[in-house]
Amino acid sequence: MRERSSVVERDGSYTWFERAKSVIAGGVNSPARSFRAVGGDPPVVMDRGEGAWLIDVDGNRYIDYLAAFGPLILGHSHPQVVEAVRQAMAEGPLLGTPHPSEIRLAEELVRAVQGLEQVRLTTTGTEAVMSAVRLARAFTGRTKVIKFEGAYHGHSDAMLVKAGSGASTIGTADSLGVPQGVTQDVVSLPYNDIERLEEVLSRIGDQVACVLTEPIVGNMGIVNPAPGYLQKMADLTHKAGALLIFDEVITAFRFHYGSAGALLGVIPDLYAMGKIIGGGLPAGAYGGRRDIMDYVAPLGGMFQAGTLAGNPLSSVAGLATLQVLREENPYPRMDRLANDLATALLHLAARHGLVASVNRAGSGFTLFFGTETVQNYTQAQQADAGQFAAFHRLMLNEGVYLAPSRYEAWFVSAQHGPDEIERTVQAADRAMAHIMQG
Hints:
By secondary structure, the protein is α/β, with parallel strands linked by helices.
């Protein structure tokens, strides 16, 4: 494989981003797409995706480990997904009525996800989490929510709470414009610290509506639960009379055909899902026990609605994606490739004298520079932001696209193969060598 030039022409990206800044706040429609965390350069503007690759507006090709932050488990433009959406578009992209595809998708989710007795489709993962929390409050008659440091649950007001250095922080918002009255009922605790959770629930458990967690954390890097942690969390939550909610927006159908909760042997009272279940189109869902879901309007008094919820395009894209995953079972292959790549990156880091660690779950993993252990958000924050930023820029010039944040995951898709993995390893070898030389 020839070495790429250290200077990659991206004049088209610069031109498009200048246009974007004049009409889009910050030039991006989600701050996660900006490059500020990796040096502030204008982000690369992509023209299209093909399988495991992205192609920018200048024609440069990149092996894609972003996977659109997780949804594209089948890679870009899978033919079965494309054909399903084409047919749905011809029949009407939005009807405003019940239709068969949304019912089929709901049936498939209920079949595949253990403990999901009924479901309600939404348009985004943010809506799914927001609705699940509202439902937990309606069902329990309580107000307080316990979440965990470094876990992102969408951008609804109540979820934009960060934790300080104490046992918990109440009422500290991560965003301007969030009223204190919204955040004062949100308690944020360290992940993987069962003693902290037990202590807080012993004090305020009778006020807690729900404990909300990702069963495998995906937004402070991939962080797995310590052995027994989730089961103890479930036991303590139920002892307090609260509901356990698993945010599986990232994890549902990522590691096997179903929920991460089932894979780990713990079934929550409610789920929130998104990303993969929409097959690359906007989609979310929440659901769980039937007696809890009976509180959702029109059966009960907990209101949630959406004009685009369960729309035909998202429903058929999700169904097509799930069908491929169920019938072809790419999980063992993706797991093996991700393991090969993660192992190679660790070996390269050691050979080049870099301190690094990898957290992996199935086909998703995170490479942390400058730290040997990451089990919670405090440890994730200790990862070397400067080294990651340098690595990100170098890998980009090598034709490898990573999420522009040290807290995000690398995702191997069903379209990655040994050639893409080998190209990535060679690129990382050169990038790490350059870091040590610089």
